[in-house]
Write a structure and sequence with these properties.
By secondary structure, this protein is of the alpha/beta class. The chain folds into 2 domains: about 5-125, no CATH class; about 135-290, Protein-Tyrosine Phosphatase, Chain A (Alpha-Beta Complex), CATH 3.90.190.20. Helices cover about 35% and strands about 15% of the residues. It is built from 9 helices and 8 strands. Strands 3-4-8-5-6-7 form a 6-stranded mixed sheet, sandwiched between helices. It has a two-stranded parallel sheet with strand order 1-2. The longest helix is centred in the last third of the chain and has 19 residues, at about 225-240. The radius of gyration is 21 Å and the shape is globular. It starts with 5 loop residues before the first helix and ends with a helix. This is Folylpolyglutamate synthase.
Length: about 290
């Protein structure tokens, strides 16, 4: 919906910039950064990038427990800078002398600062459902991450591997995957091919056989036939990459979860990585954790 190339996507995302305001972003590939910087000039908006997490001074060293995955440190840095600037602009940082705002020249990296304990307390309350989320149901552990780009799939695989104990014969590994029609499985599935899944399941993003167009989690951008064809394409790509025959396709998420429940009856422990689409992850959560 935002384009098929980094420059196109960057152009649309930079549309959020407003005149005489401040926009904070993270480092991007040069082809995307050029577009963002030009959009900032056109819209007369100051654009700055966030520093690395090591540029900050923290009252403790337990950052990994805030958001799972090393890549989330970039998001933490972004959050810290946004709060800092908001407090400065609203005049609420008098009690935080270390936060006095001193902006560098436009299109430069913002400096780190000494992080108050209040900031850290707030970050620890952060909950991001469907992103680096681990959910255990009986003997089945779901690893849910809505990664849907090659880079985010790479990070997702690293996160899964870090949180997935050394596989044993008692742990049966399942991949539940789909990607939307505008994304190619040939650029996404290679990130997961060496993870050691015992079976790969490919589902549409429909919740149940009878589609309910009133549900927020329903993907209305693809027809039923298109989604089914995409499942078959995903399955073929996986077989070509891994040579693995243990793959199945499903017309809806509930059918895929029924299959996972069947597998759980025949295995002592199951680990299921759900990824490739936010629609898929949201659909799975609606069944296994309705309160999410």
């Amino acid at each position: 919906m935002l384009g098929t190339s980094l420059p196109e996507i960057a152009w649309h995302k930079a549309g959020i910039m407003k005149r005489d305001s401040i926009c904070i972003g993270v480092e991007q590939p040069s082809e995307a950064m050029k577009v963002i910087e030009q959009r900032a000039k056109d819209r007369e908006c100051q654009f700055y990038t966030t520093p690395g997490i090591n540029e900050y001074e923290f009252p403790s060293n337990h950052l990994d427990s805030i958001l799972p995955g090393h890549h989330q440190m970039t998001n933490l840095s972004l959050a810290l800078q946004l709060v800092r600037i908001w407090l400065e602009r609203t005049g609420n940082n008098e009690s935080l002398p270390s936060l006095k705002l001193s902006l560098p020249s436009p299109t430069k990296t913002l400096p780190g600062f000494s992080v108050p304990q209040k900031f850290l307390d707030g970050l620890k309350k952060c909950s991001w459902k469907g992103r680096g989320q681990i959910l255990k149901k009986d003997n089945t552990t779901f690893f849910l991450d809505g990664a849907h780009t090659p880079k985010s799939l790479q990070f997702c695989n690293e996160w899964y591997s870090e949180n997935h104990p050394t596989p044993t014969s008692d742990v049966f590994q399942v991949l539940l995957f789909t990607c939307t029609s505008d994304r190619s499985p040939s650029t996404l599935l290679p990130m997961l091919k060496d993870t050691g899944f015992d079976i790969a399941l490919f589902s549409t993003t429909r919740l149940k056989p009878a589609i309910d167009k009133h549900l927020d989690s329903t993907n209305l951008n693809a027809s039923e036939i298109e989604q089914q064809e995409k499942c078959v394409a995903n399955q073929k790509c996986w077989k070509d990459l891994t040579g693995q025959d243990k793959t199945e396709t499903f017309d809806c998420i509930s059918d895929a979860l029924d299959r996972i429940r069947e597998l759980s009856k025949n295995n002592k422990e199951i680990h299921v990585l759900v990824t490739g689409s936010l629609h898929l992850v949201g659909g799975v959560l609606s069944f296994v954790d309705p309160s999410a």
